[in-house]
From TrEMBL:
GO-annotated biological processes: monocarboxylic acid metabolic process
Record-level Gene Ontology MF annotations: transferase activity
Gene3D superfamilies: Malonyl-Coenzyme A Acyl Carrier Protein, domain 2 (3.40.366.10)
SUPFAM superfamilies linked: FabD/lysophospholipase-like
Malonyl-CoA:ACP transacylase (MAT) domain: residues covered: 67-171
Protein name as catalogued: Malonyl-CoA:ACP transacylase (MAT) domain-containing protein
Protein source organism: Panthera leo
Length: 182
């Protein structure tokens, strides 16, 4: 299964898998619309039997959740170990075209003071996070395929949105730092 298909499957199954225990929320009032059911019905109408089989519930041991880091996790040299994996250099090249400077060079060689500036560290953490997903996809594709949720701290929220297919990669590095902080 490709990453794009796995990400689309995650977006489709967001409410369908790997729930633990009962919710503490009160029951909805009688006659309330169940949004998760509406989304599942709409998806089922568009998919074939193969996709429907892929949506079946998975036991909790076969589910994964990705959590992306935020500002403050940046360090000179980050990303160095990811450069040998497919598409990682492409991610940095795309970031360079959006940002107008060489984010890979800054991430690998610093200086730390420049990397710590919000305008640099947020795109650096964003791109390094998605580069780490590429490594994960290469080494353990089942983790990506079985992902049922993605979340992030601060700028990590944008990486989670890109992973989920809700946002384009090129939109992430272009987000002004003040929007990352909101």
């Amino acid at each position: 299964m490709s990453v794009r298909v796995a990400r689309a499957a995650w977006a489709r199954d967001w409410g369908a898998g790997c729930r633990r225990g009962a919710s503490n929320f009160p029951l909805p009032p009688p006659g309330a619309v169940n949004v998760a059911e509406l989304l599942r019905d709409a998806t089922a109408a568009e998919e074939g039997p193969r996709e429907a089989a892929a949506r079946r519930r998975r036991p909790p041991g076969q589910c994964s959740v990705l959590l992306f880091p935020g500002q403050g996790s940046q360090v000179v040299g980050m990303g160095r170990g990811l450069l040998g994996y497919p598409r990682v250099r492409e991610l940095y090249a795309a970031a360079r075209s959006v940002l107008g400077y060489d984010l890979l060079e800054l991430s690998l060689h610093g200086p730390q003071e420049a990397l710590d500036r919000t305008v640099h560290c947020q795109p650096a953490v964003f791109v390094a996070s998605l580069a780490a997903v590429e490594k994960l996809h290469h080494l353990q594709p089942a983790v990506i395929e079985n992902c049922v949720a993605a979340a992030g701290f601060s700028v990590g929220e944008f990486a989670a949105l890109v992973f989920a297919g809700a946002m384009e990669f090129s939109e992430g590095p272009a987000v002004p730092p003040e929007e990352f902080l909101q």
